[in-house]
């Protein structure tokens, strides 16, 4: 019998998904020496020791079994209190909080819980690269609404309203944003909330960078009038507590939505890793000083990178949060892919070409400034040198 051609057995759905544009770049960079990477979207801090110690201690005490599907109740209670304290939201630990394997899982099960085939989700772009494929994998149709630097990468209520059809089920928001670092004020979000209510939509609010807001106090979408029951609030520990490898996030939603997500979570994952949950519990109990210290350090680097890019002639919107700068390279006449490739091959600096983040991303590069000041200074020098050959 002929050897099975396994690629003929893949689902149509999975075949429509493109591999991540970020990975291609890093595969290239990983084969080269002496690279400075402004590529990866993660903190350059090691998880604070008290958090690691709490996790080690849970192992020493023998807490190695599955936890409750929704997560250990102590952690859910702590998440509830933390969100109330920091973001003025109110969630019941028993019925409205689910501890997930990263914010990534929360987005996945959120989409799968609400989408039927052909339902549309409006995604404000440029955006985190997982939203589009996760909508598609859930049978939904992503609808892009692009933002641009002239509007500080904010989205307006009228832009969203113009994209609504009779198939629109939800809106995906993420402020502070990956990759632009853009933030929105409470007043601006209220205008969007009015559109959401008028058109009876659900909202995914990815607030994973909320703690890393440098200029204004962040506003949780769920804290706006009438928005709690319409919002699937996604957050986690990866960015604010420097815990990317722990794979721990959470999702907050009204009981019906949460119960649906819990079903998916329980069948596909059972529970988030128990030892990681004990670490996260400690992060919420005693980690706020560390969080503040890391935040101040990112803020200093944010100020440096924006000032330096402006000085070397790269127009750069001032990001109010997260740890990304998203300067425009339009005047070089190159596409973002061409620019990023040249920068990698000729100057050995790895950045992510903006087009991979969707509409509004072309003409920009994403530079993560969660790296040492020394690396940032050298990167600015190298980018400046490349620019001088191009302009
Ligand atoms: N949302 C956004 C906007 C992100 O940038 C990321 C990580 N890059 C995630 C979610 C996923 O985070 P986690 O590590 O918690 O899965």
From TrEMBL:
<dbReference type="InterPro" id="IPR004838">
    <property type="entry name" value="NHTrfase_class1_PyrdxlP-BS"/>
</dbReference>
<keyword id="KW-0032">Aminotransferase</keyword>
<keyword id="KW-0808">Transferase</keyword>
<dbReference type="InterPro" id="IPR050596">
    <property type="entry name" value="AspAT/PAT-like"/>
</dbReference>
<keyword id="KW-0663">Pyridoxal phosphate</keyword>
<feature type="domain" description="Aminotransferase class I/classII large">
    <location>
        <begin position="34"/>
        <end position="383"/>
    </location>
</feature>
<protein>
    <recommendedName>
        <fullName>Aminotransferase</fullName>
        <ecNumber>2.6.1.-</ecNumber>
    </recommendedName>
</protein>
<dbReference type="InterPro" id="IPR015421">
    <property type="entry name" value="PyrdxlP-dep_Trfase_major"/>
</dbReference>
<dbReference type="GO" id="GO:0008483">
    <property type="term" value="F:transaminase activity"/>
</dbReference>
<dbReference type="InterPro" id="IPR015422">
    <property type="entry name" value="PyrdxlP-dep_Trfase_small"/>
</dbReference>
<dbReference type="InterPro" id="IPR004839">
    <property type="entry name" value="Aminotransferase_I/II_large"/>
</dbReference>
<dbReference type="InterPro" id="IPR015424">
    <property type="entry name" value="PyrdxlP-dep_Trfase"/>
</dbReference>
<dbReference type="Pfam" id="PF00155">
    <property type="entry name" value="Aminotran_1_2"/>
</dbReference>
<comment type="similarity">
    <text>Belongs to the class-I pyridoxal-phosphate-dependent aminotransferase family.</text>
</comment>
